[in-house]
């Protein structure tokens, strides 16, 4: 699953049943940092190391179904083994892809 931030800074969870991949895809350019931070408020915070810390609470609110919740719990369990969970803040680390920085085609 991944979280997408569109160029117009809308946030959505996509590919929701793929619990093996977890990332944040940002279609907006990096120079929109303050607007991006506002769009991600309550969803995730970007770190300086190319990752984001995603709110477990926000994720859990995407789907109330027991099978999906069980899949998310299992994914978080695997992430814990690698130190990718901040239990105090209830966040999960995700890789960030900046697709909005791709050069324009001529």
Structure commentary:
This protein is α/β, with parallel strands linked by helices. The chain has one domain. The protein is built from three helices and seven strands, in the order βββαββααββ. The chain has helices at about 35-40, 55-60, 65-80; strands at about 1-5, 10-15, 25, 45, 50-55, 85, 90-100.
What coarse outline follows from CA principal-axis ratios?
globular
Cα separation of the termini: 32 Å
Estimated radius of gyration:
14 Å
- Major sheet: size, sense and barrel closure? 7 strands, mixed
What's the number of domains? 1
Strand and helix layout:
Layout: E1 2-5, E2 11-14, E3 23-26, H1 33-39, E4 44-46, E5 51-55, H2 56-60, H3 66-81, E6 85-86, E7 91-98
Parallel strand pairs: 1-3, 3-7
Antiparallel strand pairs: 1-2, 4-5, 5-7, 6-7
In short:
The chain is built from three helices and seven strands; from the N terminus they run βββαββααββ. It has 106 residues and is of the alpha/beta class.
């Amino acid at each position: 699953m991944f979280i997408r931030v569109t160029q117009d800074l809308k946030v959505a969870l996509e590919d929701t049943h793929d619990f093996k991949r977890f990332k944040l895809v940002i279609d907006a350019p990096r120079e929109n940092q303050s607007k991006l931070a506002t769009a991600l408020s309550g969803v995730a915070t970007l770190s300086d190391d190319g990752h984001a810390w995603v709110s477990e609470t926000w994720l859990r609110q995407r789907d109330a179904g027991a099978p999906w919740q069980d899949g998310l719990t299992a994914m978080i369990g695997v992430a814990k083994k690698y130190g990718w969970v901040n239990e105090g803040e209830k966040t999960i680390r995700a890789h960030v892809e900046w697709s909005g920085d791709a050069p324009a085609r001529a």
